[in-house]
Design brief:
heterotetramer; A mainly alpha (251); B mainly alpha (229); C alpha/beta (199); D mainly alpha (69); B: 229 residues; mainly alpha; 10 helices; elongated; C: 199 residues; Rossmann fold; five-stranded parallel β-sheet; 8 strands
């Protein structure tokens, strides 16, 4: 166990293993996304109340779920970086933020577009959308804090502290936004009524959630590889890797 | 070598902060003046209709209190960082948790508490129904303490940055959301004639959590900032 | 008292120290020399434990408390010298009573030639006087390890002589001093000199 | 298949514009998430490779000079 953990901290090992994982995970992700999208768009039955507009759920919910999970991945990486001072955890944390922000953005946008046919307006202060907006700002905060520091190690530590504060806060924020929404707007149509969802709709939704998780992992690994190369640019193994790749390219 | 007894250290730290603040008495009034100014802007912006003002009053009062606390928190550690007292503080054998707590406590005594005390005045100006006043004061009393604690985390993380300014708002305002919801919720409930006890209890819970955890985050933030500066 | 091994120090992407080792024991007066930008300040900050991110290697201190004087004064301009020093004593765990503390502070201020300025706000003092208030800590500190960054800056000749005597006393009673200085250090006490060059 | 024709699938009883645009945006985000980091790594690799090549060239030039002197 400890040796595995130790290996995780080694850039060359991580670079090599992530390459191997991506080789098969990337096609699997794309396949899952394609199958899920086609299933959701064309084969899942229409909702009896919302008609076809509900098909946005197959993008909106997976994006929201994975965006939220991404924050916890980021905070976990941050905690590891604070406790064990592991450089690769810094790399992972740094890479999570833009992915999470992009997914949150997608969730917000799809929520807004969904609002138009459902409520007749582009923006509704629904509990889920509002929480997503807060989450978006949490991600943007981490990214801007990282950029504001000159010293990269200090930046990573500061962001780790911030994301840990965020992890304590997110459940409180979500609960209070839920309470606030139930107070002001007794929901007539909720976006999602998981309990009453037909299994024909649930299956593609679950598939899409899995696909988005895979997408997150792929993107994270790809970002981390770039970040590793940038940081380890002067080391022997990167020199060798680059020169080999360069030679192969030239031939 | 043993550390000084903790309580005297806490009180010495607090006394020093307050003494420093009272050497610049005008600065204590700044958050209050800010509060008054922004409260004045609302009737100008949304019209003087008393009914409308009364409806918006809980939200307005809470948002302005929130911004006033945030603006004051931004400079909480700035002078100490620049004159080097912060790095000396990190070198003392005292637990940093207590030092941070005393900084925040002083900050709250100088912003949150006065805001709470003058809030009824502004509430009357905004036509808030009188039965809501106790809830307003209690919610501000508890809520501004949470705001000070959480805001100080942002202040600690950004104190060494040259371009801190707006960044702290971006970092901290999302964390202020629950306090705002329950704070203004308490006042709204009371204004409608209901008991605001549940919301006040939630605010109390948030305060306990913040007292327990925030000083650690502040301490970590200060160490990082001194290190990078 | 202080043990540094395999220290690699970087600042702003520049390598300042490579595989630096240092062992300071009780009774040693260590003078760190080097040109501007050779990393003296960064090294002292790292030794004090204030900078932990730009170095790798091990720094171990056996002493619990230390005294660090850096470029920043560490004084509050809005407090008087007496108040500043009282805070210093309180935060550094002297548990003797208030009267004793006041007497100590009086003595320390007298030692740095600031009698009559005890109750003037620090921001009304000149740069040299502020520096001396800062140095008054040397007379109040119980810490065995002193880390001093340019303690003689803005101090006149007679002041320097007195200061050097204080440093030697500290070393002779079993403490240790690690310092940087642009001025020559004139004393009979043996000095360990360490020159930082281009790594 | 829920729809009789391609036109019906595109129209989705009037909701087609919303649904398809969301899926289009999602596709763009997926492309951004996968292609973005790849392009970034590529740029970093090329920069570093150019640097290495220059260093090598400089070394190759130095060697004959050193042996000649």
């Amino acid at each position: 166990m400890w040796s595995f953990f130790h290996k995780l901290g080694s850039p060359p090992w991580l670079y090599a293993i992530s390459g191997k994982i991506l080789q098969w995970l990337l096609p699997v992700t794309l396949l899952l996304l394609a199958v899920g999208a086609v299933w959701g768009l064309l084969y899942a039955p229409a909702d009896f109340r919302q008609g076809n507009s509900y098909r946005i759920i197959f993008v909106h919910v997976p994006a929201s779920v994975v965006a939220l999970a991404g924050y916890y991945v980021m905070a976990t990486a941050g905690a590891i970086s604070l406790i064990w001072k592991m450089k690769m955890a810094d790399v992972a944390m740094r890479s999570c933020a833009p992915i999470g922000a992009a997914l949150t953005f997608l969730a917000l946008l799809s929520g807004a577009v969904w609002g138009k046919p459902t409520w007749g307006t582009w923006w509704i202060w629904d509990a889920r959308v509002t929480s997503m907006l807060v989450l978006f700002f949490l991600y943007v905060g981490v990214i801007s804090l990282y950029e504001a520091f000159d010293n990269e190690v200090a930046a990573a530590r500061a962001c780790a502290v911030l994301s840990l504060v965020g992890t304590v806060n997110i459940p409180i924020i979500y609960k209070s936004v839920d309470w606030w929404y139930s107070l002001h707007q007794p929901a007539s149509i909720k976006f999602t009524e998981e309990s009453s969802m037909h299994s024909d709709m649930l299956a593609p939704l679950l598939l899409m959630i899995v696909a988005f998780y895979c997408l997150f992992i792929c993107s994270l690994l790809l970002y981390m590889r770039g970040e590793i190369l940038r940081r380890e640019g002067t080391t022997h193994w990167v020199r060798k890797l680059l020169l080999d790749a360069g030679d192969a390219h030239a031939v | 070598m043993s550390g000084a007894p903790l309580l005297p250290f806490l009180s010495a730290c607090l006394r020093r902060q307050l003494l420093l603040a009272f050497r610049r008495p005008l600065e204590i009034a700044n958050p209050l003046l800010f509060f008054l100014l922004v409260v004045m802007l609302f009737p100008l912006g949304i019209g003087p209709d008393p009914r409308q003002l009364a409806e918006f009053a809980p939200g307005i009062l809470w948002i302005v209190a929130l911004l006033a606390t945030l603006l004051a928190a931004e400079s909480l550690f700035r002078v100490d960082f620049e004159d080097g007292t912060l790095e000396q503080l990190l070198l003392t054998p005292q637990p940093l948790y207590l030092s941070c707590l005393s900084y925040v406590l002083a900050h709250w005594l100088l912003t949150g508490l006065p805001l709470t005390l003058v809030a009824p005045l502004f509430a009357v100006m905004l036509q808030l129904p009188p039965p809501a006043l106790p809830a307003l004061m209690l919610s501000l009393l508890l809520g501004t303490a949470v705001l000070s604690l959480v805001g100080s985390i942002g202040a600690a993380l950004t104190v060494g940055l040259k371009r801190g300014g707006l960044l702290i708002s971006l970092l901290i305002i999302p964390f202020y959301v629950p306090v705002l919801i329950f704070g203004s919720g308490a006042v709204q409930f009371a204004a409608l004639g209901n008991s605001a006890q549940p919301q006040l209890l939630v605010l109390g819970g948030m305060l306990s959590l913040a007292i327990a955890l925030a000083p650690f985050a502040i301490a970590a933030g200060l160490r990082i900032s001194v290190d990078a500066g | 008292m202080l043990c540094v091994e395999a220290l690699v120090l970087e600042r702003g992407g520049r390598l300042l120290l490579n595989d630096f080792s240092l062992r300071v024991s009780a009774g040693q007066l260590v003078l760190i020399e080097g040109d501007n930008g050779s990393g003296k300040t960064s090294l002292l900050r790292a030794l004090a434990g204030l900078a932990r991110y730009d170095h790798t290697g091990s720094i171990r201190r056996s002493a619990e408390s230390l005294l660090y004087l850096g470029h920043k004064s560490g004084l509050k301009g809005l407090l008087t010298p007496r108040e500043n020093l009282a805070w210093y004593c309180q935060s550094h765990s002297q548990s003797h009573g208030r009267d004793q503390r006041n007497a100590d502070i009086e003595a320390a201020l007298a030692a740095v030639d600031l009698v009559g300025f005890e109750d003037v706000l620090c921001h009304n003092l000149s740069a040299g006087q502020q520096r001396r208030v800062n140095l008054a800590r040397l007379y109040l500190s119980p810490a065995p390890l002193w880390l001093l960054d340019e303690p003689f800056a803005a101090i006149d000749r007679t002041g320097v002589v007195g200061l050097v005597r204080t440093l030697v006393q500290q070393v002779e009673r079993g403490g240790a001093v690690v310092m940087t200085s642009h001025q020559a250090l004139q004393t009979d006490h043996p000095i360990t000199r360490i020159r930082l060059g281009q790594a | 298949m829920q729809f009789d024709s391609l036109a019906a699938a595109l129209a989705m009883n009037g909701h087609g514009g919303y649904v398809w645009s969301v899926y289009l945006i999602a596709a763009l985000v997926v492309v951004f998430l996968l292609l973005g980091p790849v392009l970034r790594s590529r740029r970093i690799m090329l920069e570093r490779l150019g640097q290495l090549r220059r260093e090598q060239a400089a070394q190759n030039k130095e060697v004959p000079l050193a042996s000649g002197s």
